[in-house]
Structure formats: C-alpha cells, structure tokens
Amino acid sequence: MDLKLEGKTALVTGGSVGIGKGIARALAREGVDVAICARRKEPLEKTAAEIARETNRRIVAIPADLSKDADAKNFVAQGHKALGRVDILVNNAGSSPGGVLEHLSEADWEQSLQLKFMGVKPSYWEIAPGAANAAGQNLTLSLAGQYGKHNISFCAVNPGPVRTERWAGLVAAMSRDMNLSYEEADKLAPASIPLGRIAEVEEVANLVVMLTSPLMHMVNGTQIEVDGGQEKSLMDRLRDRK
Questions:
Q1: CA–CA separation, 130 vs 127, rounded Å?
Q2: Which one of 14, 17, 23, 122 is separated from 205 by 20 to 30 angstroms, measured CA to CA?
Q3: Can you give the pTM of this predicted structure?
Q4: How many helices and strands in the chain, by DSSP H and E?
Q5: With respect to CATH, is domain 9-240 assigned 3.40.50.720?
C-alpha cells in the first residue's frame, strides 16, 4: 500500500534512540524528510547519519531538552527552517522513571509530568497555539476538536512494554520493587500479554507511520493502545503467587 507520504516532512522528538528512532527511520523509509531532537548531541547526530545513509532522505539533528520551553521553540523553528515546512509532528518525549507505583517518589512524579506532558505541550504550542491544558488522551481530544477546522488531525499512541534500550532497566526496577529475581521480573510482562511477548520498536513505529498518512486522516482525536491486549493486573497476580 502506498501511504502517500513521499516528499512529506516531519518533526520527531526523542528521536535518537528507542521508539523515536524507530519512528524516524520508518518515516524516512516512506520518503519523508525528518528533523529529530534529543538532549544528547552525539547519539542524536549518529542516529541522523545512520538513517540518512540507509534511506537517502534528509535527516536533521537538532539537540533539545523539551523540558525547557526555549529548546522546544527552537526545535520547531529550526526544523521548519531546515525542512521548509512541517507536515507531521510526532511527540515522543523521553522515558519516565521505572518502578512500581508505591515506590515512586514525588520527584519521580514531577520528572514524568514535566517530560511526558509539559515536554509535549510546547511543541504542539508552536505548531498550534492556544490548546487547552489537559493531559494524555484529553489533550489529544482537545487539540483535535480545536484544530480540525484547519484540516489538522491528532492521534495518541500508547505503547505497552516495548523492547527498547531501556527495557533491561525497567525489568531491574520491577525486580527491586516487587522483591523478585531479575529472571522472574522479566517474565511478568510477557505473561500478562495474550500474545506472550512484549512489542518490538518496529511494531509501534509502523502504527505511528500509518496514522501520519493522508489515508488515515479520519482517525482523529483518539488514543490507540499497542500492548498486545495486556491485562496489567495479571502482573500483580502473578507476582503475588510467589
């Protein structure tokens, strides 16, 4: 299927590793020129060069810390300047601290909110100013309702466990907080998923790229789970059997 993305342009945040890198690569493979950002300059530039060599598309690396409003504004401005326009924006803010709810500190919560919500909001704000304050799916619904008249669509993708560079750290946090061996903790997430495994980066990236296609324009103001049908409560029940 031709997704009609050839010649489009995209901004992808958190694009140096993990899901963000996978999304940038998948978009480039469909003929999209991409600007990516992340806090660390060296791995960001390495990723940009790698994807550019592989796809023969223009991949622009712009270092940015999205918890800083000035950096978010600069990423959008520099990305727009480098690419000529912005057709697609993929907000893929970085990772939250791992662990079980009762073991997370107030600082962990603050860090997650600052990055996952406030780090997303400035990038949208530069593309579409004036959106109501909300979080997660409510933000997506709010933006879809407000900017549909401009022919702009918004979707949220919510991945479950994904095999990225940080998966080992998340398993270690579960092992610590649940008082399990690393091996036992590593089996919890797959055991809670009917398909019996966690997702691969490419599986999340494929959905995101599909949603950016003009063919998917009516998929708007919604959130799609990519978790293999995970029943998270099973993780607690499996742990409590021990």
A1: 10
A2: 122
A3: 0.83
A4: 10, 8
A5: yes
